[in-house]
From TrEMBL:
UniProt xrefs under Gene3D superfamilies: Glutamine Phosphoribosylpyrophosphate, subunit 1, domain 1
Entries under NCBIfam families matching the protein: purF
Domain Glutamine amidotransferase type-2, first and last residues per copy: 24-248
Protein encoded by which gene: purF
Biological processes annotated in GO: 'de novo' IMP biosynthetic process; purine nucleobase biosynthetic process
Organism per entry: Syntrophomonas wolfei
Organism domain of life: Bacteria
Any single Pfam family the record assigns to this protein: GATase_6
Tagged with keyword Glycosyltransferase: yes
MF-aspect GO terms: amidophosphoribosyltransferase activity
Name listed for the protein in its UniProt record: Amidophosphoribosyltransferase
The entry's keywords: Glutamine amidotransferase, Glycosyltransferase, Transferase
EC number from the UniProt entry: 2.4.2.14
Pathway the protein takes part in: Purine metabolism
InterPro entries the record matches: GATase_2_dom, Ntn_hydrolases_N, PRTase-like, PurF, PurF_N
Length: 342
């Protein structure tokens, strides 16, 4: 009975108290050379600004100068957390950033990301979009080995796994073992002092894409962030793939070949920006086609089509087009407030 009570307490702590971010935004860049020490941080800031719709609770940027990792994060929008003076202090050629959205429970600075850790081989920064479904099991196992947790996030679980597995392995080898242990939907960015690493869950539920900017590589949750900073979309990170970016360039390793893909339909219906392309499908075109298909299946007697802005507008246009009905604006959204769902 006592053991069962402990399990319930652990479940309550790591799940009920903070059921963590099913949807967040991540952005990372590796600059080969730069005359501006703050360029990586500044580019990450604008990348996160483009991903603000993915999380409005907290934001943060971590930067490596090749020797150590610096971090600034806090509660609020990216423009509220990261000011010009902060960017001036975040000097380095590697950077990752995060905007956070948690579904339920506590929202506090302890769980803001990126998370930065010291481990046997140096420093490590993590930014995570997703949710592990076996967090309780992994926490119990790690706690039994002596791990101490400072947050209620499953990102810290990944950090502890990485630290444990990297004692005798390279970071990408340790990450490969983590993927085997972790169950759920996730896109991870990991930064060491001299490497940027991205990984996507084996079924590709969470989005992650690779871009290029003046010969430098970028990883981001959505291609819209690449457009914002002037980068070009190369491709999506494959499900179960680890992408390593270092001074020698880009390296790829396919850890798990999933028998099927299971992309999150909510990205196309609602969450992603309409100007993003995820897994070679443009979000705007997908929503518009959904509206057309809805009209084919449910063509009702109506005078006009009115959308619930903004995510529903593309689908409403498709419905109106297929049904031969006029599209009109009937509901107005206040453009000066945050995203209403979040």
């Amino acid at each position: 009975m006592l053991e069962e009570m402990k399990d319930l307490d652990l479940l309550s702590t790591c799940c009920a108290e903070d059921k963590f971010h099913d949807e967040c935004g991540v952005f990372g860049i590796f600059l080969n050379e730069s005359e501006d020490d703050c360029e990586a941080a500044r580019t990450t800031f604008y990348g996160l600004y483009a991903l603000q719709h993915r999380g409005q609770e907290s934001a943060g940027i971590a930067v490596s100068n090749g020797h150590e990792i610096q971090l600034h994060k806090g509660m609020g929008l990216i423009t509220e957390v990261i000011k010009p003076d902060h960017i001036k202090k975040l000097k380095g050629r590697l950077s990752i950033g995060h905007v956070r959205y948690s579904t339920t429970g506590m929202s506090n600075v302890v769980n803001t990301q990126p998370l930065v850790f010291h481990y046997l081989n140096g420093m490590l920064a993590l930014a995570h979009n997703g949710n592990l479904v076996n967090t309780v099991e992994l926490r119990k196992r790690l706690a039994a080995y002596g791990s101490v947790f400072q947050t209620t996030s499953d990102t810290e679980v990944v950090a502890n796994l990485l630290a444990r597995y990297s004692q005798d392995n390279k970071i990408e080898d340790a990450l490969a073992r983590c993927i085997m242990d972790a169950k759920g939907a996730f896109a991870l960015l990991i930064m060491t002092e001299d490497r940027l690493v991205g990984v996507r869950d084996p079924m590709g539920i969470r989005p992650l894409c690779l871009g290029e900017l003046n010969g430098n590589y970028i990883l981001a949750s959505e291609s819209a962030a690449l457009d914002t900073v002037g980068a070009t979309l190369i491709r999506d990170v494959n499900p179960g793939e680890i992408v390593v970016i270092d001074q020698d360039g880009l390296h790829s390793r396919q850890v798990i070949d999933s028998p099927r893909r299971a992309h999150c339909i909510f990205e196309y219906i609602y969450f992603a920006r309409p100007d993003s392309t995820i897994d070679q499908v443009n979000v705007y075109q997908a929503r518009r086609e959904m509206g057309r298909q809805l009209a084919r299946e449910c063509n009702i007697d109506a005078d006009m089509v009115i959308s619930v802005p903004d995510s529903g507008t593309s689908s409403a246009l498709g419905y109106a087009e297929e049904a031969g009905l006029p599209f009109e604006e009937g509901l107005m959204k206040n453009r000066y407030v945050g995203r209403t769902f979040i």
